[in-house]
Specification:
Layout (H helix, E strand, L loop, with lengths): L16 H25 L2 H21 L3 E4 L9 H12 L3 E7 L2 E10 L2 E6 L3 H7 L12 H10 L7 E4 L2 H11 L3 E5 L9 E4 L2 H12 L5 E5 L4 E8 L2 E9 L2 E3 L6 H9 L4 E2 L8 E2 L5 H9 L13 E3 L11 E4 L6 H14 L3 E8 L11 E7 L5 H4 L9 H12 L1
Parallel strand pairs: 12-13
Antiparallel strand pairs: 1-2, 2-3, 3-4, 5-8, 6-7, 6-8, 9-10, 9-16, 10-15, 11-14, 16-17
Helix pairs in contact: 3-12, 4-12, 6-7
């Protein structure tokens, strides 16, 4: 796809607005209500087992007509690093694990053979624990930002004041009542797509709501909390790792041009090409998007930055735009650890990736601007394996230890 066809609110991901809007409508009006009805009428354990039986039947039928195959060798370019770190750790342990392929295409479905039994899972084996240990809640419902926010508010936990709206007018009126600065985002999204930060005026608010409505029928409007975006990953009753994620930036040395500093940044051995699946960190792509962003800051690729002068290369804090990921696990203040563990306990799930905003994770949350913003039922643990700053943490190892002990 040509660069000009990218949506600036999706970049560097490909835009599929029409399909996303339809999916959000179907989920809001049909899938979510039906799911709640089924889990109310039928025991959760029965609901999960039924889904598992259907999956096995589909896979068996596919294998019968020779469309699906099992392989223990991956074409790594087809799968993202969040899946690959799980696969690599399984292979390191000598586990009997297979990927299900259709033709030459890998899927996100896997088969594990362990102690004489066969297990099917999608993307992560953590779901096997949820299926076996029926006291856990279904974490996927908390991926909806509005559902998670209501949970936080109910338990009086720190989160931005806000609400979710189907009506653009109601979202706008609520934003004016709440007061600037604001954040506007889709009810369900990832990678900061179609999210607007630090909204300061009525014009910006109207535009931000329009941007969300391009991809989702529901709009979240909430307070803007200054600080850096962090992720803490919890497994069972333990904090296993935490990162700070910042938008891609460079710092001047008084001699080098911006273009040269970007080249040096891109030389990090773990940074892959833009849109490359089998890597966590990505290079900063020099293109018209970047040049326009630099121009807004009054600089260009040939500008020589002063010593210690910092220039940001994107307003999106995601890895696809070359974000920097710092391991801050050892810096978490005990008060903050208590807060994260409390949230994880309330969620009642085996694995959670909690995103929060703060100035400094080593300072108690009560003493700074601090807000929990979302939960991820299947967090991308590869960020802990491949930080741009700090030592890596093998979270996949801990996931497999937990899963195998439960099976």
């Amino acid at each position: 796809m040509k660069e000009a066809n990218y949506c600036p609110h999706c970049y560097p991901a490909y835009a599929n607005h029409k399909q996303e809007k339809i999916d959000s409508m179907l989920d809001f009006y049909f899938a979510a209500p039906l799911g709640r009805a089924f889990t109310t009428i039928f025991p959760q354990a029965l609901f999960r087992r039924t889904g598992k039986v259907i999956l096995r039947a589909v896979l068996s039928f596919s294998q019968f007509i020779q469309h699906a195959q099992l392989t223990d060798v991956l074409d790594r370019s087809q799968l993202n690093n969040g899946i690959l770190v799980i696969w690599d750790e399984a292979k390191r342990r000598g586990l009997e694990i297979f990927n299900i392929t259709f033709g030459n295409k890998h899927t996100q479905h896997f088969i594990l053979r362990w102690k004489g039994k066969t297990y099917h899972f999608d993307r992560s084996p953590i779901y096997l624990v949820t299926e076996k240990c029926h006291h856990y809640d279904d974490a996927r419902k908390y991926d909806d930002k509005s559902v998670f926010k209501k949970l936080l508010l109910h338990h009086h936990l720190p989160c931005p004041q806000g609400d979710v709206f189907f009506s653009a007018k109601k979202a706008f009126d609520y934003g004016l009542k709440l007061g600037f600065p604001l954040v506007v985002k889709p009810a369900v999204s990832s990678f900061s797509r179609h999210v607007s930060f630090n909204i300061q005026s009525e014009t910006e608010l109207r535009k931000a709501i329009e941007v969300v409505k391009q991809v989702n029928c529901r709009v979240v409007v909430e307070q803007y909390i200054p600080g850096d975006v962090h992720r803490v990953t919890l497994l069972d009753k333990t904090i296993v790792a935490s990162t700070k994620r910042q938008a891609a930036s460079i710092v001047g040395d008084g001699v080098s041009t911006i273009e040269r500093l970007i080249d040096e940044k891109n030389n990090h051995p773990w940074r892959g090409e833009p849109k490359q699946l089998d890597c966590t960190l990505h290079k900063v792509e020099i293109n018209s998007h970047l040049q326009q962003f630099l121009a807004k800051q009054g600089v260009n690729l040939k500008t020589k930055l002063k010593k210690d002068q910092r220039i940001f290369l994107s307003n999106k804090i995601n890895n696809g735009n070359g974000a920097d990921v710092t391991n801050v696990t050892a810096d978490i203040h005990p008060e903050n650890k208590k807060l994260f563990l409390k949230i994880h306990q309330i969620l009642n799930v085996p694995l959670s990736g909690i995103d929060f905003i703060c100035q400094d994770v080593s300072i108690p949350w009560q003493q700074q601007s601090f807000a929990v913003i979302e939960n991820n039922s299947l967090p991308y643990i590869d960020a802990h394996h491949y930080p741009s700053v700090g030592e890596p943490i093998n979270v996949a190892e801990k996931v497999w230890e937990f899963v195998l002990s439960a099976l």
